[in-house]
Amino acid sequence: MNYRCIQQSVLIAAMACLSSCAYMQTHKNIEEAGRQHAGYHLNSPLKLYKGGGQYYLQAEQQQLRIHYPAIHDSIFLNQNNALTLTRTSGETSNVYFPISKGTGEVMQLQNGYVELETLKDELLDGQINSISSLPAGAHECTIRSTVQGEPVTWLAPAATEPGTNTGTAILSTLDKVLVDWPGTVLYNLAIPVMAPFVFFHQFLNEE
After folding, report:
1. pLDDT along the chain (207 residues), means of 10
2. Which of 68, 94, 131, 152 could form a disulfide with 28, with the two C-beta atoms 3.0–4.6 Å apart?
């Protein structure tokens, strides 16, 4: 067994002995650099339509790129684990999601109230029946309710991800071996040292 194999074996063994709650994942961003994913974006002002007895909410279909945080830490820095989605320069189009009669009626009430995140969850439930053009005779409804929340973007679950080419796969593997694995070991070893400083920083900010 040559020195390189021994070195990799030691790294793997060390990682197995450490907690798996924290790990580096920069190699994932290398893999995602050349990929685009279909997704949707919902923002205010909203557009509500009714056609054929069904309410539809308009969303924007976009091409998105995924970015992962360099370090995933489910305990120590658990506020920074979510991946982010950024729109690429590709073209966008409108898509119409069916929503319930109750939601459609609430959105037209002067004293109604809806949140974008809640609407997104309903659109996800009805996405299998989404359409690219409204049915004949559909008309726009006036939204009078209060709409709150930050704009929301999400991936289309059925979207097919492009494969990774050979060059990108090699770079990703090298990054995993030379950066992510050693970085994961060092980060886990540093947690006991960093923990008191982070604790006091969070405590002072809360005060």
Report:
1. 52 47 93 90 96 96 94 82 89 94 97 96 90 96 97 82 79 95 91 72 63
2. 68
